[in-house]
Design goal:
Blueprint lengths: L5 H19 L4 H10 L8 H13 L4 H7 L2 H14 L4 H15 L24 E3 L5 E7 L4 E7 L6 E9 L2 E10 L2 E8 L2 E9 L2 H18 L3 H9 L8 H8 L1
Antiparallel strand pairs: 1-2, 2-3, 3-4, 4-5, 5-6, 6-7
Helix pairs in contact: 1-2, 2-3, 5-6
């Protein structure tokens, strides 16, 4: 890897940021995980980061991966990997970030089945729309804001299988994305005025796919509040039957 390449420059800058952060907070888990990922990719050896990496590997708790998942560090790493891919940086950097992100996201506490999706992974805005299998594994999340504003994630009773759809309205037109997860791959079908059932299949880590689906449903729910709330805002009423105010005035 040439020391003047965009990838080397990005790694060098990120390492400098991590180094400064660890000087102030030497036990910060996010910085330590980033340090471990980047230290061997750096264009020049950084003794300070190597020392942090070695200390982390020697002293970290057995459940450090689970701690990282609970803190959302996997999301940070996925975001960095997507940014590196979008900037067309070296595949080695993308692979290192993504690999560690997958490792954290698939971690579960002792006794919990691999791939189990519990309520802690569901965004708060979707909590009221979520249903669960008897063992606590997510069964369904549905957002319905009317025609052209619907989405649903359904998971089977065992991790590793599920379906997703999202309908969005774009002006006069609409689109529908359908996804099926099975055998470690996502099968995608896109329907729109410009796509007549175009299909694609890509390998994808299970938990990352579920989280991506939940993120899209969260965005839909936040962008389009429930129909009752929209109607209340239009009338200026909250929790009052339609026409209730006018009937009250007539009685007076």
């Amino acid at each position: 890897m040439a020391t003047t390449s965009p990838t080397a420059n990005q790694i060098r800058e990120t390492c400098a940021t991590v180094r400064e952060h660890l000087r102030a907070a030497p036990d910060d888990l996010t910085a330590l995980i980033l340090c471990e990922v980047l230290v061997d990719l750096a264009p020049t050896r950084d003794p300070e980061l190597v020392a942090h990496r070695d200390r982390f590997c020697a002293t970290r708790a057995d459940d450090w991966r689970e701690q990282g998942r609970v803190r959302g560090i996997h999301r940070v790493l996925f975001h960095l990997a997507d940014g590196a891919r979008g900037a067309r940086l070296d595949a080695a950097l993308v692979s290192a970030l993504e690999g560690r992100a997958v490792e954290l996201s698939e971690s579960r506490p002792a006794g919990v089945p691999p791939g189990h999706i519990d309520a802690s992974l569901v965004p708060a805005v979707l909590a009221a729309d979520a249903g669960f299998h008897p063992d606590g594994h997510l069964a369904q999340v549905r957002v319905d804001r009317g025609a052209g504003r619907q989405g649903q994630l359904q998971l089977g009773p065992r991790p590793g299988a599920g379906t997703f759809f999202l309908e969005r309205k774009h002006g006069e037109y609409g689109s529908r994305v359908e996804e099926r997860y099975r055998r470690g791959c996502v099968e995608t079908t896109l329907r729109s005025p410009w796509h007549d059932g175009d299909q694609d299949q890509q390998p994808a880590p299970w938990t990352r796919w579920v989280l991506a689906c939940l993120d899209r449903l969260e965005a839909l729910a936040q962008a389009t509040p429930p129909r009752r709330a929209r109607a209340a805002r239009r009338t200026g009423l909250r929790g009052q039957p339609r026409g209730g105010a006018s009937r009250s005035r007539r009685r007076r």
